[in-house]
Write a structure and sequence with these properties.
Layout: E1 3-10, H1 27-39, E2 46-47, E3 56-65, H2 72-78, E4 83-91, E5 103-112, E6 124-126, H3 132-140, E7 144-147, E8 161-172, E9 175-182, H4 189-202, H5 209-216, E10 231-237
Parallel strand pairs: 3-10, 5-6
Antiparallel strand pairs: 1-3, 1-4, 2-3, 5-9, 5-10, 7-8, 8-9
Length: 251
């Protein structure tokens, strides 16, 4: 039976997360419903990883098995408008969307201005003036393999070690884009890192405070977990192209 790999986009604010839940609208529910409608069979999907309620995706990867042909156009015709398949291929049965993934890239967007923009549907509005140079210095302390317990919300998953390959911010106009790339991420980790960046800036703390918080492994030392509106899963990669000496190269 052929295995399909699809890359999908979705607008997170319309869903209670990516994974199926009782009495909640989720991306997986809508995708499986569309696939079952199209194929007239019950189709089960595997995601590269879960995204929480409100988190967007531009490059979420999913696999499923189906003994037949599927076209992107036909699948998008039965999907709701807030989910889109942007790539579809057949892959080896050894491929697993979650277990085969090696690198995940998240981006958090902040509009740093006095006035909100009505078109910023996936951007956090923040009024306090942010310093891009200080933000990048703070982010630099996250590079490498660390225990990220200080940036993890409580969950049943005991994992705490992650490797961050890139952590860098750029500013275009009033919008700051914070890109963080790693082998894995803990529950609410990116949103808490961003909340810590905002805390450091607002309280005018030294950027090295990020290193101190990281080493503490104490969630109480870090900043708030910011709104998911600005967070997007940009890409999932299945080959680790990051090698020693190339970590934190330009994104």
């Amino acid at each position: 039976m052929p295995r399909y790999k699809i890359t999908i986009q979705y607008l997170g604010q319309n869903f209670k997360g990516s994974q199926k839940q009782l009495n909640a609208r989720t991306v997986q529910d809508e995708l499986e419903k569309a696939l079952s409608t199209l194929t007239q069979q019950k189709i089960s999907t595997i995601f590269s990883g879960r995204t929480d309620s409100g988190v967007n995706a531009k490059g979420q990867v999913v696999h499923f098995d189906y003994n037949g042909e599927i076209a992107i156009y036909n699948l998008n015709c039965v999907l709701p408008k807030d989910i889109r398949v942007i790539k579809l291929t057949t892959v080896n049965k050894k491929f697993h969307a979650q277990m085969s993934a090696r690198v995940r890239h998240y981006q958090y967007k902040i509009r740093n201005s006095n006035v909100e923009d009505v078109f910023d549907t996936c951007t956090l509005h923040y009024r306090h003036k942010l310093n891009l140079e200080r933000i990048n210095e703070s982010l630099s302390y996250l590079i490498g393999e660390h225990d990220f317990s200080a940036f993890k919300s409580s969950s049943d998953n005991p994992a705490k070690i992650c490797t961050i390959y890139k952590a860098h911010a750029v500013k275009i106009g009033d919008v700051i884009k914070i890109d963080i790339v790693g082998n894995r991420f803990l529950y609410n980790m990116v949103r808490t890192i961003v909340g810590t960046l905002l805390m450091i800036e607002k309280d005018n703390l030294p950027p090295a405070k990020m290193k101190e918080i990281l080493k503490s492994k104490d969630r109480a030392q870090a900043g708030a977990t910011v709104n998911p509106i600005g967070l997007t899963l940009m890409k999932v990669e299945y080959k680790n192209r990051y090698r020693k000496g190339k970590i934190n190269e330009n994104i």
